[in-house]
Design goal:
Elements lengths: L15 H4 L9 H10 L4 E7 L5 E7 L5 H6 L1 E4 L13 E6 L5 E2 L7 E10 L4 E2 L4 H15 L4 E13 L1 E6 L4 E6 L39 H13 L4 E6 L6 E6 L2 E2 H21 L3 E3 L13 E9 L2 E2 L12 H12 L1 H8 L18 E6 L4 E5 L11 E3 L8 H17 L17 H4 L9 H10 L2 H4 L6 H20 L4 H7 L3
Length: about 500
């Protein structure tokens, strides 16, 4: 994450010097229409996010693109979208946000993509279960508190690129099979189909950070992803291979304001998946697809600013942080069990959140220590660089809901002056059992995280940011569609453990 937010007040106006490209996003409906003409656009694609966090879309032709589209919106069937409406109340509207328009670098047909807000046509109001609306309400609530004017977020998304993935389960069988030419398990494979023999140079388990090619076979694909993201107006700072074998990667975006960064995360996933597919490979943001190696996280850097002042900086404070920053951390740590329901929202997330593998399971704060849930990066002493890195989230999260929930927890900590406890600047895994017992940990399952959310959600409902309906719909969806369905199915390892009983 970059260190000078004030230098990027408009994160989508990028200079040629910064990246040998220039993207300026439109600000009004007329700007979009002008862009359509300028770029010889033939199709306009309308994108929005369902409640679990996947992009949905449909496309319209140019005669349908006019200023009224951005005010009146365009209809769609909300009952077919996960977490949205029932069949008897299915009619919904999409209202394109002109500030999000970008020439889609994935499509061969000249296409302009626009991210949309969801509107209830009966009430003519934003739809309460639209994740993007939740994020925008969180930013509005921040300003209403008078604490700050802006929340900057800089997530570090990790992901895998595999050569192939096969999986399935029915009444009599269940399996998954991941393949990667980088995988350490393939040192003995006859790779004649890949050019003859075996070329070696596999990534050893937990040693993927940062060998150069030929160990790192994905350098060119990551570069293509980074440049494609920049074409879409998402500024990229760095990319590299990550710790795990078999194609774990990280491409870091420059920070942005909360809702805008959630938009960027959706663009990021879209581009990663489609560029990988161009190369006959598959990208996944599933947190833990491999056993016995590191999983994929989404460490979230956060800071609060009042105009051009970073409120998290204090020259005389611990790790150069202010009281306000430490209270914000206190809120994150206090509400972390409930936050995990949005920040680590899958059953697979909790195969990552176990001790070891750099997993941030301990609810403590530290400077530099990556085994703590909340960390203060110490790369720079600049006032603009002071921020908290919350390490528990993973990239399966809906970014609109996760970023909004973290902000609300931090604000609750500030409002209540919540003490985060003493810094823990030692290796947490080297603590004695007596010392370790005094450190709270994140929940060990999605079920436990949802129970924590049921018991602790008042901080989310402040300012009507998360409505009761959104929280209950989320809990019900996760329990019925994910937790219960996993509980009903035998696991392959159970056959190893129990078949001979």
């Amino acid at each position: 994450m970059s260190t000078t937010p004030q230098a990027s007040a408009s994160p989508f106006a990028v200079s040629a010097e910064a990246g040998r490209f220039r993207v300026t996003r439109p600000g009004s409906a007329n700007d979009v229409i002008d862009l359509v003409r300028e770029k010889y656009i033939q199709i306009v694609d309308l994108k929005f996010t369902d409640l679990p966090g996947l992009w949905q879309h449909f496309s319209i032709t140019l005669p349908e693109v006019h200023p009224d589209l951005f005010d009146a919106g365009i209809g769609f069937d909300g009952s077919s979208i996960r977490g949205f409406q029932e069949i008897h109340e299915s009619d919904m509207l999409l209202r394109p946000d002109p500030a999000t328009a970008f020439v889609d670098p994935v499509c061969e047909t000249p296409t302009l993509s626009i991210i949309c807000d969801v509107v209830d046509p009966v009430l003519q109001q934003p739809y309460s279960r639209d994740p993007r609306y939740v994020a925008r309400k969180a930013e509005n609530y921040l300003r209403q508190t008078g604490i700050a004017t802006t929340c900057y977020v800089g997530p570090e998304l990790e992901f895998f690129i595999f050569d192939s993935i096969r999986f399935g389960q029915d009444q009599h069988c269940g399996f998954y099979y991941v393949e990667s030419s980088e995988g350490d398990w393939n040192t003995g494979r006859d790779e004649g189909a890949y050019g003859g023999g075996n070329l070696g140079y596999k990534q050893r388990y937990k040693e993927g950070y940062f060998p150069v090619p030929p160990h790192d076979t994905l350098q060119e694909i990551r570069s293509e992803i980074a440049l494609t993201l920049q074409q879409a107006g998402v500024q990229i700072e760095v990319h590299h291979h990550e710790v795990a074998t078999a194609g774990q990667n990280e491409i870091d975006m420059r920070f942005a304001t909360l809702t805008r960064m959630a938009d960027n995360v959706m663009i990021y996933k879209y581009v990663c998946k489609n560029v990988a597919r161009r190369h006959g490979k598959v990208a996944t943001f599933m947190p833990k697809p491999l056993f016995a190696d590191n999983a994929s996280g989404m460490h979230c850097h956060q800071s609060l600013w009042k105009d051009d002042e970073n409120l998290f900086y204090e020259a005389s404070g611990w790790a150069l942080t202010s009281d306000l920053c430490r209270w914000y951390i206190g809120g994150l740590l206090q509400h972390a069990p409930a936050l995990m329901a949005f920040c680590a929202p899958t059953t697979n997330s909790y195969k990552r959140l176990v001790p070891g593998y750099e997993a941030p399971v301990n609810l403590a704060m530290s400077q530099r220590n990556r085994s703590a849930a909340a960390r203060i990066p110490m790369y720079s002493n600049s006032p603009g660089a002071r921020r908290v890195e919350f390490r528990c989230p993973d990239p399966s999260a809906n970014p609109y809901l996760a970023f909004a929930a973290m902000l609300m927890a931090g604000l609750d900590g500030i409002e209540n002056r919540t003490d985060p406890g003493d810094p823990l600047d030692r290796n947490i895994y080297d603590l004695s059992p007596e010392e370790a017992r005094n450190i709270r940990q994140v929940p060990d399952s999605l079920d436990a995280a949802l129970a924590a959310l049921e018991a602790d959600n008042a901080f989310l409902r402040k300012g009507d940011v998360f409505t009761e309906d959104v929280i209950q719909t989320w809990i019900e969806y996760k329990r019925k569609r994910e937790i219960d369905s996993i509980k009903l199915r035998p696991h392959p390892w159970e056959f190893y453990l129990y078949f001979d009983t």
